[in-house]
Amino acid sequence: MSTAKINSLALRQRKQKHQSGPPIVMITAYDAMFARLFDEAGVDILLVGDSLGMVIQGHPHTLTVTVDEVCYHGRAVARGTSQAHLVGDMPFLSFQVSPEDAVRNAGKMIKEGSFEAVKLEGGQTIADHIHRIVAAGIPVMGHVGLTPQHVHAMGGFRVQGKTPVDAERVLNDAKAVQDAGAYSLVLEGIPAELAAQITASLEIPTLGIGAGNACDGQVLVGYDMLGLQPHPSARFVKRYAELGHEIITAVRTYAHEVRTREFPTEEHSYQGNPSNP
Fold it and tell me: Greatest CA separation found in the chain?
């Protein structure tokens, strides 16, 4: 496994024929401990997603997350990362109002969040915003299809691009994001056939989540794939572990041993002078 720091240019080159490589692996992280573990496991991209509003803060959607909160988690993840490329989600209304707002907040995330790129949801309507951010020297990852920041407008977390008209809209969004200068693109919640068509038509790598196997890489929420969430996962999530159950069992065992005075034992206690253990 290479120890070189992964950057946006290297990821884009993975799509090129002369630089073809294995599919890109991206996972969300929100703190230094998980970042270190994911980085050590060889993940290519760590995303501080606005999904933190749901999995960290307990909200039913991502809309409450602020730029300052994303920056806080970004700094923590950066301290645990040595190899993976670090991307931060631009929260709801941090980029939609104007290109100037988009550049200002993207710059803040780079300066104060230790990010190496930002991710924006949307297509044709924010193409100029993406162009302006890229012109400022900040790499941009796009995100089209099911865009969680539009949850109310979409009537929930619904698959997009199912009809010919909607499929054409998603395809045009993807092309607009590429033409605006993005170096990669998340495709979320769209039919596998449409994701394959978009992936074949673009020069930048695509990262799928609920979009089939033809994308140039895949992304999952770390807490979902580790089985930390108690509720059933979305259909597209594969749970590679059930750490939530293991944590509950471990804590119950700890609580039992404390209550029965089985813990701490002598080997877990300081002996003699506390200042000289």
Answer: 76
Query: Residue 272 — pLDDT band, cuts 50, 70, 90?
Result: low
Catalytic annotation present for 266: no
Domain span holding position 195:
8-241
One domain for residues 104 and 116 = yes
Contact yes or no for 73/31 (Cβ under 8 A) = yes
Residues 96 and 121 in one domain: yes
- pTM over 0.85? The answer is yes
Give yes or no for residue 150 having a pLDDT over 80: yes
Q: Among residues 188, 203, 257, 266, which one is catalytic? A: 188
Q: Give the pLDDT of residue 274.
A: 57
What separation, in Å, do the N-terminal and C-terminal C-alpha atoms of the chain show? Answer: 40
**Residue 187: is its pLDDT beyond 80?**
yes
Q: To 5 degrees, how large is the angle CA 176–CA 133–CA 161?
A: 30
CA distance 208 to 218: 5
